[in-house]
């Protein structure tokens, strides 16, 4: 765009004397201005040499990484300019958390809520990247190397894995034939089934992820449509074994396994490996098929580990299982929240848990909603409410407590000053008692609030 | 399965909503209520979903039970039929006739067909049930989806309401700080004012307290000092009395001795009581002692300083006195010379008048004063003849005198308190001796008051006796002192001067220089006499020679006598008359002179006029 001979053009050169106001203090110094032939050209367009250098660094970043020795401003420029498609082995440990990783994330996902990832874009990128890899992993088709290769880069950033689907292996066309043959030999069938139907093996991954704190798994297939099969929605025995062994190695605090048809056997297997886990604080096995056997195992776990939150809602835990859990509860001193919603605890189980709460001083939240309980359990629990000073919330909804149970609860609440939440919806408690209970709860909430204002610290459930 | 799905969604939503609400720490009541009521809706939905799940479960359980019963029944009936068929097979096998067989087989076939039909029917029924179930599931799903949509809508509304509430709250919070700022400023100002006021008050009270403390301290100090002083004085007195008693026995009669003894005893008792009193609060005494020693040190230091200062002052005065004397002498000489000159001149004039004017013989009047030339002369003339030899003697024995004085004092050390000695230790030798003398005097029953006064005075007289003794009191004192001493010495020494000399020699043997025993007595005498006499040269100059000088100056003034003056007046008068006549004469001579000159001039003019007329005449003649 430069004119080679500026004098040849009309009005190309303006002498410095006319542009004196530009630098009045140094009026003696003559200035020269060169105006381009192209009227659209302006000085702003011309990049400075340093920015060009930086641009070339950006362009050749994969071959040669120059980053550490740059000034902060130059680093920002490079982070703005780098391509998000660069291989992770280059960028993972070199580029700090910030603009670059934000760009990477926003390029791949529409919704990016960085606050859920500790406000770290890099962590978000790696966690979601790894989740995607695992979710799209097809056993026996995808090379395990694809996942394992990423691990060295992301192992220091991944804190949480939330795997929302696990694909089963693709059934070969000959599988049907196998099925026909299997009718003849059941033993072979089961063996074969176990051999081929297992999901992604977490042992490989969890061993590497030393910083992992939360792990949430669902053995299911999303959007399966008309290819629905029950097999897609359950973990096999071998899956369970490998997962249990893997759990034993890591140092995670939260383990969640939803909607994966975990029965007593698998539950026992998992719990067996979690018994001596040093750091586990929260266990969530909701929406499974755990019965009394599994509940007994969980009770054992409660007695031995330092669990703080246990969620086993929507399972099939009956009276015996509830009793086992209650027994553990009376001895445990760490659990602060217990969720037994939508189980089959019934009166006996409810009474057992109430009895256990007499000697427990740590449990803050208890959910016994939808457990087919009647006024007997309600009266047992209301006895406890008078004595216990640590409980903060109880949920007894969807139980057939009746008027008697309501009356017992109302009486108990008149002596209680600590409970800030008591849910008695859909329990056939009469209006009067229900309103009284809610009044007391409101008063308790207010006093609690005042207390917290005084101390200046508020904890929300 | 149906309920499950919805369940999960609801849970996710509620947890989400909770996480929204879970971070602001303080809420006002309105937002608290809002939160509770709004979330109550969500929790209600959750419980409703739970209830539905429970209902579904029971339904499913019932359906399952029914199905099982149905299947069981069916199994039973089909078993019966199968048994029937099986039993009929035996019959069929027994049939030998073909048509029968055929018939039986047909029957069998029919039965089987019926059985199969039954089964098929059952399967159909089950399939239908399944289809129904599927349909209802789909319906459920749709319903759930609708409900979820509704719920999402509602929750959005809730979130909007909540955000609105939060915004209002925020606006209030934003408005509030301005108000708060003002109130805070006011509060702070008033607070600071109050603080300053209270500070002032406390400061004042503190100052007052300090003042009071100082006052009290001063008072205590004074009291202590007074106490210490009193006790000390009493002790000293007592000691002195006790110690003096044996000495006094020598020259006091028995009565006085007894009196002294009794008084001493009384004093002793008094001091004893005082001591016991003092002993009572030993701590106090100890403190007082400490204070006393401190004060003592301070005092010695102070006194030394003062004495030095005094010495310096005295030197200064001496210097000034000498200078004044010199100037006085010079002035004297000068004025004297002038006066003499004037007198001489007057005499000369007198002689001239007498000789030349009056023609009388003039005699020079005899005036001794004219021969004087210094201010000291008249003193010498009028000086005491007694002081002459004494001074010589004094000069002669000055060394011995000093020694004797020292000796005397050292000898009488036993009379002096050790405390006093200790006190005197830091002082110079001469001062020490003087102090001892004072204490000795004190011992010889002088009133304490006078003694203290003298002590003060004498301690400063050490080297500057001349000036000090000008004060009459000291003079008087020295006289009395001398008298006392003289009496003492007369008794003690003069009676047995040999013994005394012997004693002196014995005591001074150890010393490097021996005092000549012959010089001892005269020296002593001189010491006493020195004290006794008040030498004339010590009389101040102003008193010394006023009358003599007056006479002197008078004589000078009266060189020319009254008669002579009268004579002079007469002469003057005559001379004046004579002078007037002479003046007249001189005037007249001047007049005559002038007239003479005039005459001459006129003559000249006449001459000229004459000559000119002649020439005219001649000219005319010639013409």
Explain what you see:
The complex is a heterodimer of chains A (461) and B (623). The model of chain A is unreliable at 1-27 and 174-195 (pLDDT under 50). Chain A is an alpha/beta fold and 461 residues long. Chain A has a 9-stranded parallel β-sheet with strand order 3-4-5-6-7-8-9-10-11. Chain A is elongated and about 100 Å long. Chain A is 43% helix and 8% strand. Chain A has 3 domains: 1-44, no CATH class; 52-112, no CATH class; 121-170 and 199-455, Alpha-Beta Horseshoe (Leucine-rich repeat, LRR (right-handed beta-alpha superhelix)). Among the domains of chain B are: 24-200; 270-358; 395-454 and 516-532, no CATH class; 565-622. In chain B, α3 (98-251) packs across α5, α9 (429-443) runs antiparallel to α10 (448-461) and α13 (497-508) packs across α14 (517-532). Classes of the chains: A alpha/beta (461), B mainly alpha (623). At the A-B interface, α18 of A face α1 and α2 of B. Chain B: Pfam families: NYD-SP28, NYD-SP28_assoc. Chain B: It is found in: Cytoplasm, Cytoskeleton, Flagellum axoneme.
Order of helices and strands of chain A: EEHHHHHHHEHHHEHEHEHEHEHEHEHEH
Number of strands of chain B: 0
| Rg of chain B computed from alpha carbons, rounded to a whole number of angstroms | 75 Å
- Subunit arrangement of the protein: heterodimer
Average pLDDT confidence of chain A is 82
What series of H and E elements makes up the topology of chain B?
A: HHHHHHHHHHHHHHHHH
Low-confidence stretches of chain B: 16-25, 375-394, 445-456, 458-475, 492-514, 531-543
CATH fold-level label of the largest domain in chain A: Leucine-rich repeat, LRR (right-handed beta-alpha superhelix)
Give the helix level of chain A as a range of percent. Answer: 40-55%
Keywords (chain A): Cytoplasm, Cytoskeleton
Main location (chain A): cytoplasm
Subcellular location (chain A): Cytoplasm, Cytoskeleton
InterPro entries (chain A): DRC5, Leu-rich_rpt, LRR_dom_sf
